[in-house]
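SEQUENCE WITH STRUCTURE:
===
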Amino acid sequence: QLVESGGGLVLPGGSLRLTCAASGRTFTRYAMGWFRQAPGKDREFVAVITSSGGSAIYADFAKERFSISRDNVKSSVYLQMNSLKPEDTAVYYCAAGVVPARNEGVYDYWGQGTQVTVSS
């Protein structure tokens, strides 16, 4: 089970840190990804981190502003989002998959999502 938290309303230019807490004993087997879905749009890839946390892949829009990390002791993955823009408004989902990928189809488990709203 994956449970996201940390979403909310933030002013443009602000920051948020999302957390995804995983239950179960197999967390370290999975790459962990973040995706987002804005109203009226398809879900899109944000970032993914390997099972060891040794490397990460980012969407182009996230490379300079977002940072993904994980704590395998706490079975949690994080998404630090800085310099937020109104176009970052979306429901953010975490997902677990065997391989780190941009394609959401390879992920086996999904959280319920957390709303991020960037507005003045």
Remarks:
- The chain has a mean pLDDT of 96.
- The two ends are 34 Å apart (CA to CA).
- The chain has no helices and eleven strands.
